[in-house]
Design a protein that fits this description.
Length: 200
């Protein structure tokens, strides 16, 4: 029985090497470093979707018996990571390393506010190009470097929540008016904050 189990492990390692060497899904993409350098991962080279505060790992010969990690990149040296499914190149997604949380999926990006989804279990990209978080998430609002965290993003927004959100953009009456009329999930409402344009 032990020999059968060992044979199965060997077969899995040969047929699906990513399951043993990379915990994250392997995808195509570009790593934009703060130095201005761009690390490209296309064709047989793949990026392992990062989780929490772990280093970014690049693999060569992806999904073959010769798969091997070719590079590890320290998260704090990365400006942004743009990834996509090889079957849906037209639907890229951006991840950034956000403060004390780690790798976060950028939902919206405005001149003053960035909206992120953070999941401690990481993310995955579907074959149709859509991106999803694993298990649970929070939404992080980055307002000119100051972070605000909102839990249960799938929950429907109520008046108390709207009041809390509008307080962050009180100096933008046009956006406040839009928020007061908005309805739907918390995530939907929070994504609107990227429109923030304060009166100077």
């Amino acid at each position: 029985m032990k020999s059968v189990n060992l044979l199965l492990v060997i077969l899995i390692g040969v047929l699906f090497p990513a399951s043993l060497t990379a915990k994250g899904q392997l995808v195509e993409g570009n790593v934009y470093l703060s130095s201005g350098k761009i690390v490209e991962a296309h064709d047989s080279i793949r990026i392992s979707l990062p989780v929490k505060k772990k280093k970014l790992r690049i693999f060569r010969n992806a999904y073959t018996a010769r798969q091997k990690m070719m590079e590890e990149i320290v998260p704090t040296t990365v400006d942004s990571l743009v990834v996509w499914s090889s079957t849906s190149v037209e639907r890229p997604h951006t991840l950034c390393y956000v403060g004390k949380y780690g790798w976060a999926w950028q939902l919206d990006n405005g001149p003053h506010i960035r909206v992120y989804c953070f999941s401690p279990k990481g993310y995955y990209v579907a074959g149709n190009g859509g991106m999803w978080y694993r298990v649970k998430s929070v939404v992080i609002i980055d307002k000119d470097g100051e972070l605000f965290v909102f839990k249960k993003p799938d929950k429907r927004a109520n008046d108390k929540f709207i009041k809390q959100v509008t307080s962050l953009v009180a100096d933008d009456p046009i956006l406040v008016a839009k928020l007061n009329e908005a309805y739907g999930s918390r995530e939907k409402i929070l994504r609107m904050l990227s429109l923030y344009s304060p009166i100077l």
